[in-house]
Amino acid sequence: MKRFLSILLAVTMLLGMTTLAAAEAGTYTGTGKGFAGDGSVEVSVTVDENGVVTDITVTNCTDTPGVCDAAVNTLPALMVELQTANVDVVGGATFTSEGIKEAVLTAVVSAGLDAVSWSTKKEKVVEKGEDVTLTTDVVVIGGGGAGLASAVQANQLGSSVIVLEKMGKVGGNTILAGGALNAVNDRSEQAIQYNDSVEWHYQQTFSGGDYQGDPVLVHTLVSNAWDGVQWLMDLGMEFQDDTAGLFTVTGGLWPRAHKPVEVAGTGFFTTYMNYIDTHEGVEVMLNTCATEILVDESGKAVGVVATGETGNTVTVMASKGVIVATGGFAANVELRTAFNTQWADLGADIKSTNHPGATGDGIKMLQKLGADFVQMGNIQLLPLGDPETGALSGNIEHDVETRIFINKEGNRFTNEGGRRDDMTNALFAQTDSYMWIVMDSDTYPTGDELNNFGETANQLVAAGRAVKADTLEELAVLMNVPAENLIAAVEDFNQYAQGGAKSGEADAFGRTLFSTPIDNGPFYAAARVPTVHHTMGGVRINELCQVLTESGEIIPGLYAAGEVTGGIHGSNRLGGNALTDTVVFGRIAGESAHYEK
Ligand code: ADP
Q1: Is the Cβ atom of 353 under 6 angstroms away from ligand 1?
Q2: Distance (Å, rounded) from C-alpha 181 to C-alpha 245?
């Protein structure tokens, strides 16, 4: 609200309007600050001769595709209906929503409409609809990566499926991910080229989590990963491997990540929704929040109670089973503070990469049924958060090999190819827990190439989220770090990167992942801070995704997959293993539920 009032003030001052002119029919434009910074949202507003806004169109939005869509698709019509720019933001697309609100307000004020009326908060009065009871074979709670993988898989086998998603869009945290999907095909050229194998993926996942993961689940993850990639490709999903090869994602420890052609995690949802929209017997109900899992007298999970779009009760009875795919709880400060055992403090001062729906709803529902929980204190932080929002977007790195981390003193301070927990701990020890990711033009030959989140380097620079300079000296000035230190750090790094005198050796921080030196200007840097990313603990499952009680008994008809589960990643999840987790265990949950009697 405060931001909205200051925008109103700025807009009216900008337009020099103390008393507003009468509205004139016509089409007006405005811009707003979305996720990608100032001016990232542009709108066109049509006003008729009575001063009524008849149409609002978002003409341009450079915020992450898939993430901003929910706001772009819903807010303009709502604003036309209520004749105000001050409507509720769309959960999961807050910044884009604010950008649209600002852009529309700018446009209507320039049209001479009443700024006060257009900045007055109005809410749509929704009449409560009828309570409904639906029947299906399988009900899935959560329309993120694991939920939709399970829905598609169960439907492919012949089950009818209803997915309940509490937000106004599918995607959860999965759609916000950088898109790295670890999978090894032992018989591929790439496995030979990179000296990789399913066994090495297993070893790194298991040891990278300090041997806390359940070996059976870790084995299930890595040995089904490549099959998951093929399944996605059969569904029409495209990967960049043919042109770009495999890459090492931050904390991934090895080049085994497949990158989708579509940015961030959007490709998964294009693929799943394309299947769901073109097949009978599988449907997603948005804005439908599950509150309770129903069990029959024998203790079998048989349905779900949810609050529907209009506040009505939606009951879904499932003849085969219930799949819980509600994701993690990193956006729930209270829960993450209560469970955290790994970090000094995970209070509200530390931001999160997560969407606002990552509140751990599944935990309460599962607790009531006597489910067991494992390693709830294991919470992953990344050193890669946007300083303002904690989000992953705005991160300029493409892969581990081509970039370094630089602190406020202009020095490197950690092995940037190491474990996520080690790198984040090292960042916490730096001045203001603040660092810059520094790289050169090998990644962005023109600056118009996309990062992993659908933003070009030039857009980030224009929005003030990254800096760019022809020389390291100039870059240091923009970063406000001592130039001599930055230059010395880069020169030392280059000794180890391909072509340098120390090529092939591990550096002083133990880094072994190098490819090219940082010597090709212009150079880029973007600031990053620690951010809460993934809750690795969760409900205990077996390799069939059946939910287990404390005494190890199976709760019949009840399955779980994805971030809501625990015991796979141990104390530290490898980068690139989360998407693999959603695909592999999502599919298994779907298959297991399908075969439940
Ligand atoms: P995963 O990676 O495990 O699939 P995501 O975060 O991608 O996790 O997806 C989890 C999804 O579950 C999100 O879209 C979230 O909004 C949804 N969700 C969480 N709680 C509920 C609930 N109570 N009812 C319906 N959907 C829920």
Answers
A1: no
A2: 13
